[in-house]
Hints:
- Residues 1-116 form the YCII-related domain.
- The chain is of the alpha+beta class.
- The chain has helices at residues 11-15, 19-36, 91-98; strands at 2-9, 42-48, 56-60, 66-70, 79-87, 109-114.
- It has a single domain (2-114), classed as Alpha-Beta Plaits, CATH 3.30.70.1060.
- The protein contains three helices and six strands; from the N terminus they run E-H-H-E-E-E-E-H-E.
- The relative contact order is 0.35.
Amino acid sequence: MKYAMLIFGDDREWAALSPADEQDAMKLVYAWYERWQPTGKIADGGAELQPRDTARSVRADANGQPMITDGPYLELKEVIGAVVMLECDDIEEAARIAATWPLTAGMSGLEVRPVMSRE
């Protein structure tokens, strides 16, 4: 079954890293991928997201019509910064794999959720 591993944190902390510190953090992330990629547990790779100030939110306005606004709609300290798709037998296995993710500056936590299948 597929699981989405949502990586969240304060992207402003990540942006404040020096280039050397960012490189060190990415080495930890690459090492994580090198550990899990050969096992077949990473389903579709992942995607690092641009900072929150590049986002657009679409919500329904008072008349039910789409309204586009800049950035996240809510003021949040933490935002989703990346998504990794896992292929695991159950959510417990997915959570154990997620628990090995290197939580560095700007990455304060993870959420693991089953991906809906409508087959």
